[in-house]
Design brief:
It is a single chain. This protein is an alpha/beta fold and 301 residues long. The protein has one domain: 3-Layer(aba) Sandwich (Rossmann fold), CATH 3.40.50.1820. 38% of the residues lie in helices and 18% in strands. The chain has 11 helices and 10 strands. It has helices spanning 2-19, 21-33, 95-104, 126-143, 157-171, 188-194, 202-205, 212-216, 237-245, 263-266, 268-278; strands at 51-56, 65-71, 80-84, 107-111, 150-155, 178-182, 223-228, 250-255, 283-286, 289-292. Strands 1-2-4-3-5-6-7-8 form an 8-stranded mixed sheet, with helices on both faces. α5 (157-171) links the parallel β5 and β6 (178-182).
């Protein structure tokens, strides 16, 4: 994310000076999302048990469709989580985190926003990915009808999408079990300024806002914020700022030595324990490790 965000700001300045505002918005979206259609070079196929879903966004036969993966847990009563990825890599580049969430005991529903992977569309926008996440949430509530056992997860740019979804649900009185965001930022302008030149008027130049700092204060569900302390793409201080702005109950998990993409892997047990404690999800033994249980949540103490 580091180099693309620098390019966003520098490209915005160049476009504003040379090409005017008409081309600026499209170029900014290209550099922000960098949507990838083909498979990641390391992708060797979907894990056993994953089912592809063609998910329409909107009504009617002509509605565009997203490609999604549904990976149910062995336990039919398992908590379910909506997985929202970040920039560039589509679902084929997300396997490590998808596998880890599944190992934790979640049923996982992961989407490619329009413009990514096999999904319809060419170039995403901020409002488009928000609409895609909401459509995916509506799908998930049909397969896991217990709102207290439906969760939202977002990584990097997907963390901003996840926070927006959680804030929208909260504003409409729609319950959810909780929100998990990892390696994310306060606003796109903040991270662009941090990774380029702090004297540039990034808030004025960028049309894609992703203002998570404002929205997270409106989230009315438990919030787990995770970040690697050695993240060179998005500094962990942004997650600390989000944590300060979030309502209780909340937890900040800073993972020593972890980078932008591996906090969940490096601190797998701490991650699982944080989910179990914050979201009041019991765990059961599974071989030499523990997983989240499909039994009902413990009553609040």
């Amino acid at each position: 994310m580091l180099r693309p965000l620098r390019l966003v700001v520098v490209g915005a300045v160049a476009a504003a000076l040379v090409g005017g505002c008409m081309g600026l918005g499209e170029r900014e979206r290209e550099l922000t999302f960098r949507p990838m259609h083909g498979a990641a070079s390391w992708f060797v196929g979907m894990p056993d048990g994953v089912r592809e879903v063609a998910l329409p966004v909107g009504d009617g036969d002509a509605a565009p469709k997203m490609n999604a993966w549904w990976w149910p847990a062995r336990d039919p009563n398992a908590p379910a989580i909506l997985y929202l990825h970040g920039a560039r890599w589509n679902l084929t580049g997300q396997l490590r985190r998808l596998e880890q969430l599944h190992k934790f005991g979640f049923s996982v529903f992961a989407i490619d926003y329009r413009g990514f992977g096999k999904s319809d569309g060419d170039l995403p926008s901020e409002e488009m990915v928000y609409a895609d996440a909401l459509a995916a949430w509506h799908w998930l509530d049909k397969v896991q009808p217990d709102a207290s056992r439906r969760f939202i997860y977002g990584h990097s740019l997907g963390g901003a999408v996840a926070i927006d979804l959680a804030a929208r649900l909260s504003a409409n009185g729609i319950e959810a079990g909780g929100l998990i965001v990892e390696s994310t930022f306060t606003t796109l302008a903040d991270i662009a300024a941090a990774m380029s030149f702090d004297w540039l008027p990034t808030k004025l130049l960028l049309s894609q806002k992703f203002d998570s700092l404002d929205k997270i204060a409106r989230v009315r569900m438990p919030v787990l914020i995770a970040h690697g302390t050695s993240d060179r793409m998005v500094p962990a201080r942004f997650s600390s700022a989000l944590y300060e702005a979030a309502r209780e109950p909340k937890k900040l998990l800073l993972v020593d030595g972890a980078g932008h993409n591996n906090a969940m892997i490096v601190a797998d047990q701490d991650y699982l324990d944080s989910c179990a404690e914050l979201f009041r999800l019991p765990t059961v033994s599974s071989g030499t490790s523990k997983v989240l249980s499909g039994s009902r949540s413990r009553p609040a103490s």
